[in-house]
Amino acid sequence: MTQEDLAAKSGVCVRTIRNLETKAQRYPRKSTIELLLDAVAASGSAQHLLSDYGQAPAAPAAPDHPGGFGRPGGAHGLPGGGHGLGGGHGLSGGADTLSGASQSAPGWLGIRRGRGRLVGQRETLEQVSVWLIRERMVLLTGPGGVGKTKLACAVAEQLHARFRHGMTLIELGGVPPEQGDPARATQLVAEAFAATIGALVRHGGNEPGSAANELHALLIVDNCEHVAGAVSAVADAVMSEHPLIHLLLTSRRHLGALGAHTWAVQPLAVEAAAAEQAWPDAVELFMWLIRTACPTLDLTGQSTRVTELCRRLGGLPYAIELATSRMRGVSLEVQLQEGPSIALLNDLRLNGYPHQRTLSASLQWSHDLLTEDQQCLLRRLTGFPGNFTSQDVKRLASVEPTDSAGVLGVLADLVDASLVALVRGYQYRYRLQPFVAEHLAQRPRPARHLAARTALSSAS
Asked: Can you give the pTM of this predicted structure?
């Protein structure tokens, strides 16, 4: 098979393949190697591409055991599994070096989320892992569908040998929002933590009478945005009572009262970061997903259109997943002609919580957690077609002031809620997250918002 043939079958550019064969590129992306392996799996003729890189794929991981607590799924995946980092190119020379612990750690306890390919997050994975070991508590924020849970689980896999009593996931998505009953929310969150810690102690094989504060484990606390106050209170108590427990939390909203080190998970890049990169990260994910969604579809020569589609999707992994799923029945060209729109992408997920099953439900969930002032300003920001500045927002306030302390404070709240994206620099620049404006345009406009719109139009 020639380099050109391999490039056509795998989607990896000829220059990258040539650099691998001549050893000019010594540290290829694991995803690049996987694409090449997929293309030549039938002949096995490209195994030599892997021989000098330590990137040969490991044996398939055993499936998780069904059921809940007390039935570990094993410590497989990262590192050395089929996803994320591997081959000793992880943190500080590899996960084994970072872990500093025996491979006999119990590993996962209970259900696991975030399975699948982790694309474009290698540096984030490394940084968050270092933070988690050093600071004990890290919060991952970002809009719905950006991949917070997947990243959190990848971090856990990266560090699995570090925690003597294992790792587990606390799902808070089913707890009612604390807006209705804060005391009840706090009780339910506290019960979830207590049950999980008790199960970890039993699972880890602690001897009877051993101190509870000796528990050395990682808790991933998922979907915290609607119970921010409850999580802040309970997590603070857990950290004090269990000095060896580490917490990795995910939330669409910043949990200011928690005091955790916060990492904002960004959408995937839609521009290539380096000349030797075959595709931008968003396109790489699209091409990988399309192999699963529609393996017979030939997108040879369509990389420019795919890149444009990923750009319109904002690099959001969930939106890219929906777009590739729709490719089974709607062509790439038609998707571009249609926007793509929420109506086209609103495919139903059969798993997850109700607010995670469609793109519209995900956006509405984030919107409903806002105060009235925040909702009002968010709707008014839809008048900006692209980037805008704080001065632009202040001009809105001069037309129809909000009832809160200040319009810029409300803008900061929307950034913390992951509904407004921010590019920091000498002058901060803002823009709405993908599909927010379209979603709001489809929703009824409250009377107060209609009055604000009328006042703004008159002033303009």
From this structure: 0.73
